[in-house]
Amino acid sequence: MRLFATLFSVFILMGGAIAQDVPQDGDNNKPDKKDADKKADFKAEIALLEGEWTMVSTTKNGQAIPRNITKSGKQSVKEGEVTVYIMGGVYLKAKYKIDPTKTPKTIDYMLTDGQGKGKTSLGIYELNEENDTLKCCFATPGKDRPEEFSSRKGSERTLTTWRKVMKKDDN
Predict the structure, then answer these.
(1) What is the C-alpha separation between 129 and 126, in angstroms, rounded?
(2) Which regions in the chain score pLDDT beneath 70?
(3) DSSP per-residue letters across the chain
(4) What is the pLDDT of residues 93-132, one digit of tens each?
């Protein structure tokens, strides 16, 4: 009897989990159009982020980074990974994850090389209307995600603006 009760409980639990995945509008298990639209939106957003970027400005913990350093800043975004170069060397590498449905849009860097390797830095981002300027604000790994685009003294945040490098065939 115990075995039956246990199996019945497992069956009910599994049935509950299965029922949550079944569309409720009788569409015979076709993917939900909203889910398909979300996936398309995510792919489109990722495509906008991919490419080569040059650093325009950076403020870290309320302190503007000197122009000679920001001028040397480059960022390469490709296939879910980002590499940031400063003064010709790799500053950091990270896998990234975005959520463009949030306000502001969120981005997480899972740092794989350079400063903070093995840690995650939580951030927010926005693209301008032309999709050629990217503003990012990241918290120091272990700190809460910023809710606004600012980097005040003691905030442990980095605010960076990037300009997309346009290829001749992008125009």
Answers:
(1) 10
(2) 1-33, 169-171
(3) -HHHHHHHHHHHHHHHHHHHHS-TT--TTPPPHHHHHHHHHHHHHHHHH-EEEEEEEEEETTEEPPHHHHHH-EEEEETTEEEEEETTEEEEEEEEEEETTSSSEEEEEEEEEETTTT-EEEEEEEE-TTS-EEEEEEEPTTSPPPSSS---TTS-EEEEEEEE---GGG-
(4) 999 999 999 999 999 999 999 889 999 999 999 999 999 9
Give me the pLDDT at residue 146, please.
98
| Per-residue pLDDT at 85 | 97
Burial classification of residue 87, based on how many CB atoms lie within 10 Å of its CB (0-12 exposed, 13-18 middle, 19 or more buried): exposed
pLDDT the model gives residue 13: 28
> Of 117, 107, 109, 99, whose CA–CA distance to 149 is shortest?
107
- Predicted pLDDT at 8: 26
Structure tokens at 96: 């990234």
Domains of the chain plus CATH, in order, are 52-170 (2.40.128)
